[in-house]
């Protein structure tokens, strides 16, 4: 699957909790190409989230503690004060624990579509699809 990490209190995480059917888009505009993945999102293990969190730069780890991602923010000063407080609690060089509200999701793909732009909008679209019950992929070309 495709794994990404976020604040579990974010709008994105709440949306996944309500409906795990998601899509990911990887556009390369200058090349007129994109890949779209659709599938089901599930939380990764705490061990996986801990391992990834430990690889992040110290400032990003501190930022995960400081930010209430997707929540209203009264001022930039408030965010910077929260960041300074977390930085004082875990000075650079110390081990910063992963916040309990931060972790990963894995998107298990059910379809992956490759799109390539073409002249006169005669684009190429190839979609790999599988059902929930099989690991076999069917390949289908689609009209643009």
How many β-strand runs?
6
* Alpha plus pi helix count: 4
Instruction: Provide the low-confidence segments as ranges.
Output: none
Shape: elongated
Largest sheet: 6 strands, antiparallel
Gap between N and C termini:
27 Å
Average predicted confidence as pLDDT: 95
Structural classification: alpha+beta
Mind telling me the C-alpha Rg? 20 Å
SSE run: EHEEHHHEEE
Strand content: 25-35%
| Helical content class | 25-40%
Report on the structure:
The chain is an alpha+beta fold and 144 residues long. The chain contains 4 helices and 6 strands. Strands 1, 2, 3, 4, 5 and 6 form a 6-stranded antiparallel sheet that branches. The chain starts with a strand and ends with a strand. The model has no long low-confidence stretch (mean pLDDT 95).
